[in-house]
Design brief:
By secondary structure, the protein is an all-alpha fold. The chain has 8 helices and no strands. It has helices spanning 2-29, 38-57, 69-87, 100-106, 108-132, 141-157, 161-207, 214-227. The chain is globular and about 50 Å long.
Amino acid sequence: MFSYLGVLISVIMGLAVTYLLVGVSEIIHMRHTVRIYWVHIVWTVNVLVYVLAVWWGMFWWNRLQTWSIEEFLFITIYSIVIFMLAAMLYPREVPEGLDFEAYFFTNKRWFFGIYLTATLLDVVETVSKGVIGLRPVPTEYVIYIPVVLAICATALITKRRRLHEVLCVAWLVCSLSYLAFTSSRESLADQVLVEPASARGAQGARSDPRSCSFESGFGMFAEALGQNEIMPRVS
């Protein structure tokens, strides 16, 4: 079921990534005619990281066998909110002489308001996966989410340029650290689950003389057939 529903989610997420990349390419092409604001660039990277992380986290929904319309609508709305978040960073067409610092602060409330909404939806999505049993809620998530919410809420209400410079970098460091810790622990957990099964398989192979090699196994099989006179004798 998820392979079917995931197509729409992938399209929406893909459009968000495309929108960000097109915006960055426009800045590169028009670098001599627009005023670039580095905080805006960092938030572009932040949103790109966020989109890819959420897209990756959607994979665990693949384990859900029975879907309801409520679950489908929730995941779809969450994906749409993420696309709207990406769309707040760039205009559809970048005019010559655009000051991205002024553009960023003009859309600041919309951008961080949607970011707060997306983060709250992420809490519901992550906790839901834990309740259903699709993926345990990471321990670091309890610390990560309040920090991210505080960063977005502060950026929403403040107009201080210096503070925005700190907040954008703080979000990036916090998010990359969270992804690094959770991914490394999940990889270790997968190894713990896989290695005992591999060890049992190897031990079973050693204890069974018929599995020592293909040649010896085939020879024993042919000998048994010859004794029962199933194989034709060569005179």
